[in-house]
Design goal:
The protein has 245 residues and is an alpha+beta fold. The chain folds into three domains: 99 residues, lambda repressor-like DNA-binding domains (434 Repressor (Amino-terminal Domain)); 35 residues; 91 residues, Immunoglobulins (Immunoglobulin-like, Sandwich). It is 40% helix and 20% strand. The chain contains eight helices and eight strands. The strands form two sheets. A five-stranded mixed β-sheet has the order 2-8-7-4-5, with no helix packed on it. Strand 7 and strand 8 form a beta hairpin. The chain is rod-shaped.
């Protein structure tokens, strides 16, 4: 085979050049594919210059060099012609095949391990961590908002028996709690302490203390107080239940 050089071109494009050279040797595409090991469909694609059907540039260069060397065509002729075709069909990819382009845009090798942790990955991790933290905070805040307030009722104790017609209700709750005792609003001091005097009737009296905060559930505490006449013996809540009074 006589090598084809830049000055010995018999065609104006790469497809015609390769096809003409192959036909000069009386070779079919199938025969070339068999002897070179190149896929037949890509031999057809190269000769027809259907660049949209070509694989990526790396494989295209390999196929071209293999085909060109088999036909005795100079690599420079093939590379230069393909570069011009690329510039026409894909201007943004022009110069990918020429040696001049490789000098202007040398490839740099980046170790794979350096790509595992990137600033973008760190940024996403921080955002995810912040979102999770905010979610936990919001859940905790909502629980605190809707949770009923704490109320400690010191006096009277449940089941208290007295001969008096009044009783002192004393206790402590959280700040900003709205407190009601038997439906009556009772103020609290800065420490949450409250005191109120209730009138009692003879027999069983139920004292209901209700505390709420804004958007919270109610906290309800119930105390039962028994009032007996002074001329009768002291009775307990158990006696009242059993009909002792």
């Amino acid at each position: 085979m006589t090598p084809v050089t830049t000055q010995d071109r018999t065609a104006t494009d790469i497809g015609t050049l390769l096809r003409t050279r192959r036909e000069e040797f009386g070779l079919s595409r199938e025969k070339v594919a068999q002897q070179t090991g190149l896929p037949l469909k890509y031999l057809v694609t190269l000769e027809e210059q259907d660049l949209h059907r070509l694989p990526n540039d790396v494989y295209t260069r390999i196929y071209l060099k293999t085909y060109a060397r088999f036909l005795g065509v100079d690599d420079a002729v093939v590379a230069g012609t393909l570069a011009r075709l690329r510039q026409v069909h894909h201007p943004e990819e022009s110069g990918d095949f020429g040696p001049e382009s490789r000098r202007k845009h040398p490839r740099t090798s980046v170790p794979t391990k350096h790509l595992l942790v990137t600033p973008k990955l760190i940024q996403r991790a921080l955002i995810l961590f912040a979102v999770c933290g905010l979610g936990v905070y919001l859940v905790s805040a909502v629980k605190d908002i809707v949770a009923p307030p704490e109320i400690s009722l010191y006096n009277p104790r449940d089941g208290y028996v007295t001969a008096d017609n009044s009783v002192m209700v004393e206790g402590k709750t959280e700040r900003e709690v709205v407190l009601h005792i038997n439906g009556k609003m009772v103020p609290t001091d800065e420490g949450g302490n409250f005191t109120d005097t209730l009138e009692l009737q003879t027999g069983l009296n139920v004292i209901k203390v209700v505390g709420t905060k804004k958007h919270s559930k109610e906290m309800v505490i119930t105390r039962r107080v028994i009032v007996r006449p002074s001329d009768r013996p002291t009775a307990s809540l158990k006696d009242v239940r059993e009909g002792g009074l």
